[in-house]
Every structure is written in structure tokens, then in C-alpha cells.
Amino acid sequence: MFNQKVADAQGRGLPDGIAFAEAALSVLLPVLIVMTVLLEVFAWPVTWALSGRFHGVSADHVGFAVKLSRLTIPYLILISLVSLLGGILNSLHKFWVNAAAPILLNLTLIAALLFFHSADPFETARNQALAVTVSGALQLAWLAHAAWRNGVSLRPHWPRFTPEVKRLMALIWPAAAGAGAPARPWQRDLYLHGRPAEPIATGPDRHRAGHGAAANDQPPAGRGR
Fold this sequence. Notes:
The protein is mainly alpha-helical.
């Protein structure tokens, strides 16, 4: 849609495209802010629903998972803005800039694991969750800088739901949801991958080993509160 505005022979070209993008941002940003606040406030039931109700998990583990959720939820607002800027850059034929943005997620997670790894697996999991949101900020900064270098600088104003903006919202939400998918399972996966390694038991001892892991692998008191 941005490209159509720019290529319209009866329009002003890039200024019309920027005006459309600013109208979209003016609607998208407040919606995302409200959504993020609601998800932070209701992180417990949201995490409970996404996790499959946490069957057989202790209260401390549930609390820690909710904490990880709250750390990663801001990634969704950031990656939605990344999707908007990415679409603009694609329209300007700067495909590689948008395609390279997810690399920053991988690099940030690797850096957090290398430089902020802790003997405490729960501390490591928390740092990895923080890295997810940090990577969203880095991706947004990367694309915002690329857009600025290509003559696109967006300034939000009072939101108006024009037909074009409504159409864009219908197109951008599936893309943003797909891009934000890595953030949703972190409250579960980060904990599982952060658990201390245990020897694999065989024979009669395998049941005792499993019960021992459940009893000993608990977050310190208050960690997830």
C-alpha cells in the first residue's frame, strides 16, 4: 500500500507514502501500547492459557514463567513496529535490510548466553528473556535508521481510522503475530532449557531420577513472585 501511494502518477510520490505510513503508525502505536499494558497486567492468566494450564508444575515455577512472560511481552509492540517499517523498506526495494533484522534476535540471544550466563539456571533464563526484548529494540533501531537513510521519517499524530488504515491493519496483524511467535513460548522453553543437566537414568532408577528432579529443581523462594 505504501508502494501504491509512492507510485501513484497523480500523487506526490514519496510524501504521500510517508503521510499514509504516519497515519498507520498513529493508529498502530496507541493500540499496541494498550495491548502491551493489558498483557502485562494479565500476564498470569495469559501465561496459564498459553502453557496448557501448567499441569504438574509447582507454584514457584508458574510464578517464574509469568515473570519471563512479562519480560518478553514488550517484544510484541517492538516487532509490530518493525513489521510496519519492514513493509515500507520492502516497497522501496530495500529487501535485505528487512530480511537481516531477525539476525539481531539470534545475535542478541547468543551474546546474552555468552556474556551473561550464570551458574544459576533461573538467572540465565531471565537474562535470555530480557535479551528477547532487547533484540526487538535493536531490530526497530536498525530498520528506523535504514528508513531514515532512505528519506522516510515517521511522526505519529492524532489517530484516524481511515479505510486505508483499516485495510493495512488487516494485513499487518498476521505478519506481526508470526514475527512475534518466538517470544510466546519463552516462559516455558527458557525454563526447560535452563534446567541443570542430569544423568539419564535407566532401569529401575529412572523413576527415582525423575522424582528427584521434580523435588530439587525449584526456583529459590520468591523468585517467581
